[in-house]
Design goal:
This protein is α+β, with helices and mostly antiparallel strands. About 35% of the residues lie in helices and about 30% in strands. The protein is built from eleven helices and 15 strands. The termini are far apart. Bound molecules: zinc ion. Zinc ion binds next to loops. The site of zinc ion has 6 residues, from loops.
Length: about 325
């Protein structure tokens, strides 16, 4: 069962969410394992992709964005790319591209940030995009600058936890103080988010900017207390305990107001948006000549979906049909002239 639970702390400017993906996560893993070309994910890749999947659901549910939220890591190590896409209705899919071996004890840096070039991107792609409209994208590095006492000296400190990468993003791009706990294994991908609610009205006026910054970003007493409690949750507890137990253990002294969790179609779930139509238009983008040369070489064109493993095959007849303008094609049988 895949669950998403939302709650607020009564009277305090703090909200929270817990996501627990089981069916959806197992589906993603088993489809990957069934792919003869790639095989199953190595455990560190599985953990990272699971944490990203849980985080992307939390971010989408938090923003309530009408379109797709796409969370990506572009790596410079054996893990070249990890992608999670969550639609407005919480339908989700995820995949990763790995080149070479990932040792079982690989850290986040070993996988994606060997040369400190890794980037994490969050893209918001509107459902009804106007022509010429670009999707919004925010990008953060997987390292942070450390200043020494001597201000001229700086060092780059690599971030080793996905939760920290996203906390950093939320603070930098959204000016939102966020605490995340993420975990994933071979049967569960789960996450806890606690966030200071955005300031409205007075707090956003420039005259009070300095003061509100001091008071609100990271220094709000209530938020700090709740964030500390949230951070005391271990990955093992997050993976093994049910949501009620997690919330009770952490926040039993707080006044929690919980919303009814989504179920079935309103809960997070695995779904792929690939289709014959989309693959065909991708093939059109390739061009007739290129498509023909692949046919000449291999006899057919095979396109596999990285997200769900679906295979789309095109032979010479399909390719001719795709690249022939519609008015030249003979009418389909039964078509009215
Ligand atoms: Zn697919």
């Amino acid at each position: 069962m895949n669950e998403l639970h939302k709650f607020i702390f009564d009277g305090l400017p703090v909200r929270g969410m817990v996501v627990r993906l089981t069916d959806a996560w197992v589906e993603i893993l088993s489809r990957r394992a069934a792919n003869a070309e790639t095989g199953a994910y190595a455990p560190p890749v599985r953990q990272l992709l699971g944490e990203m999947t849980a985080a992307a659901v939390l971010m989408q549910a938090n923003l309530k964005f009408n379109g797709a939220l796409i969370l990506q890591i572009f790596g410079d190590g054996p893990l070249k790319l990890a992608v999670v896409e969550v639609q407005a209705d919480l339908a989700l899919r995820a995949t990763a591209k790995v080149v070479g071996e990932v040792p079982t004890d690989a850290t986040l840096s070993d996988m994606v940030n060997v040369h400190n070039k890794a980037r994490c991107a969050i893209t918001l792609d509107p459902a009804q995009r106007q022509s010429g409209q670009q999707p919004y994208q925010g990008v953060v590095p997987l390292s942070r600058r450390v200043h020494f006492d001597n201000e001229a000296e700086q060092a780059e400190d690599r971030i080793e936890a996905m939760s920290e990468v996203l906390e950093h993003y939320m603070l930098q791009s959204e000016q939102l103080d966020t605490t995340l706990v993420l975990a994933a294994n071979d049967s569960v991908a789960a996450g806890l988010l606690v966030q200071r609610m955005p300031m409205q009205g007075l707090g956003n006026l420039s005259a009070s900017t300095e003061r509100s910054h001091e008071d609100d970003i990271g220094k709000n007493e209530d938020y700090r207390r709740i964030a500390l409690l949230a951070k005391s949750l271990t990955p093992d507890e997050l993976l093994t305990l049910d949501v009620d137990t997690v919330l009770h253990r952490l926040f039993w002294q707080e006044k929690l107001l919980r919303f009814a969790p989504g179920t079935g179609e309103t809960a997070p779930r695995f779904a792929c948006t690939c289709s014959l139509e989309r693959v065909t238009s991708m093939l059109k983008g390739l061009g007739h000549e290129e498509a023909q040369s692949i046919i000449a070489e291999r006899g057919k064109i095979d396109v596999g979906c990285d997200f769900c493993g679906m295979q789309y095959g095109f032979d010479a007849v399909d390719v001719t049909r795709i690249f022939t303008p519609p008015e030249v094609l003979p009418p389909a049988s039964g078509a009215v002239q």
